[in-house]
Design goal:
Elements: H1 22-50, H2 54-70, H3 75-88, E1 163-169, E2 179-186, H4 192-201, E3 208-212, E4 215-220, E5 223-227, E6 232-236, H5 248-262, E7 273-278, E8 283-288, E9 302-307, E10 313-319, E11 323-330, H6 334-342, E12 347-350, E13 361-378, E14 384-398, E15 404-412
Parallel strand pairs: 1-13
Antiparallel strand pairs: 2-11, 2-14, 3-4, 4-5, 5-6, 6-10, 7-8, 8-9, 9-10, 12-15, 13-14, 14-15
Length: 422
């Protein structure tokens, strides 16, 4: 091509980095503004979440943006680089710039404080219904093979009307036993032939009259004999009313021989005891009791014989069972036995003969021990028993004289038994 035509060649256009138009400048400024906004947004968000120092992100962003701008790079890329710098590379301590005061947070964004994560409430434990503790079962004292027993017949007498005591415990009630023995009395029923033979052995030669089942009567010139299951009575009409009495040992021997001849007592009798002696009347009274159980406060079982002058048996009165059947029974609780005593449901016995002053007396007794005694319950017509009484033992100081005497208080002790009589 030839330029000789006289035209000047077109001028050479020199371009600027982002063009020479105003539009390009506006776009660059917009991109820069968006980059700054995004950097500020992420800085604030990061501060809220991690509570980091906001100055680090601002310095890093400004540095990255300035570097990119001076290198003629894209402001958007510079912003991205700045963001990556704050998240992946911590700025050295020497580059730290004190942070500018943070602007007051907006009322709506970002929130004043992070929304707390809901905490699941602990499930409320449903209270379980109260469980009743098992009540300690107090075992009832046991009954023996005879079942519930009739009331005990307490012996009469004692000094309860003339001596009034208060009581103090000088022993442990836990020492008291939990059981004892009850005895059923089996009464003999004699046949007519047996009574006839016994009457002849005793020198009574007369007809035996049967008055009922097991009840007989013999009347002879030498004496009489009455026989029933629970009582036997003999009376002699052939004896010398005058003369000297035998000594106690001989009188006991004579009485024991008469019982052996009659056969009314069997082999459970003790050796006999002289209970009274009257030289003027010419009588020695000898009492026999079973070997067991002892002591027996009731008049039954017993065989009582009166020995006259010359060794003649004048009278005999016998209440002697043919057998004693034993069965174990539970006793009243110790506290109940103690309460019966202090409330006066027992029999008080004490030897007041040596006291220097007469009745009435008062005093304080200390109980230190116990034993057992027996008495009757029931009757021969139904069933009759020997039942135990618990006897509290101690000493009483008499207020009126200051003297000390031994005392015994017997109380009904069997649990399965009606209230006492007497």
């Amino acid at each position: 091509m030839s330029y000789d035509s006289g035209r000047r060649p077109p001028p050479r256009v020199r371009t600027r980095p982002y063009g020479s138009s105003q539009r390009a400048v506006a776009i660059a400024l917009a991109v820069l503004g968006v980059s700054i906004f995004l950097a500020a947004f992420f800085l604030i968000l990061d501060r809220i979440r991690d509570d980091d120092d906001p100055g680090l992100a601002v310095v890093a962003t400004s540095t990255a943006t300035s570097d990119a701008a001076s290198a003629g790079g894209d402001p958007t890329e510079a912003s991205a680089a700045a963001i990556a710098s704050t998240t992946s590379r911590p700025m050295p301590t020497s580059e730290l710039v004190p942070p500018s005061p943070s602007p007051a947070p907006s009322a709506t964004f970002p929130p004043e404080s992070p929304t707390p994560t809901p905490v699941a409430e602990e499930p409320t434990a449903t209270p379980e219904p109260p469980v009743d503790e098992p009540t300690a079962v107090v075992e009832e004292p046991f009954a023996g093979e005879f079942g519930d027993l009739p009331p005990a017949i307490l012996p009469s007498g004692g000094v309860s009307q003339s001596l009034t005591l208060t009581y103090e415990l000088g022993m442990s009630l836990t020492d008291l036993p939990a059981s004892s023995w009850v005895y059923l009395l089996e009464w003999p029923i004699y046949s007519l032939e047996e009574v006839q033979a016994i009457a002849q052995q005793l020198g009574l030669f007369a007809e035996v009259v049967e008055e009922g089942v097991g009840v007989y009567r013999v009347s002879a010139d030498s004496g009489t004999l009455f026989v029933s299951p629970a009582e036997i009575v003999y009376a002699s009409a052939d004896f010398e009313p005058s003369g000297d009495l035998l000594d106690d040992a001989t009188a006991i021997q004579v009485a024991a021989g008469w019982l052996a001849t009659s056969g009314f007592t069997g082999g459970n009798a003790d050796g006999g005891t002289v209970v009274s002696r009257d030289d003027e009347l010419g009588r020695t009274v000898v009492d026999f009791r079973p070997v067991e159980p002892v002591p027996n406060l009731a008049p039954t079982p017993s065989a009582t014989l009166t020995v006259g002058p010359g060794g003649a048996v004048m009278e005999a009165r016998i209440h002697w069972p043919s057998n004693l059947v034993a069965s174990e029974y539970g006793l009243r609780p110790p506290n109940e036995l103690w309460q019966l005593m202090i409330e006066g449901y027992g029999v008080l016995d004490a030897d007041t003969s040596a006291l220097s002053a007469g009745p009435p007396w008062t005093g304080a007794a200390t109980i230190t021990d116990y034993t057992f005694a027996y008495t009757l319950a029931g009757s021969p017509a139904n069933q009759q028993f020997l039942v135990p009484l618990l006897v509290f033992l101690g000493e009483a100081t008499i207020n009126e004289t200051g003297e000390v005497i031994p005392v015994e208080i017997a109380v009904p002790s069997v649990y399965h038994q009606a209230g006492p009589l007497g």
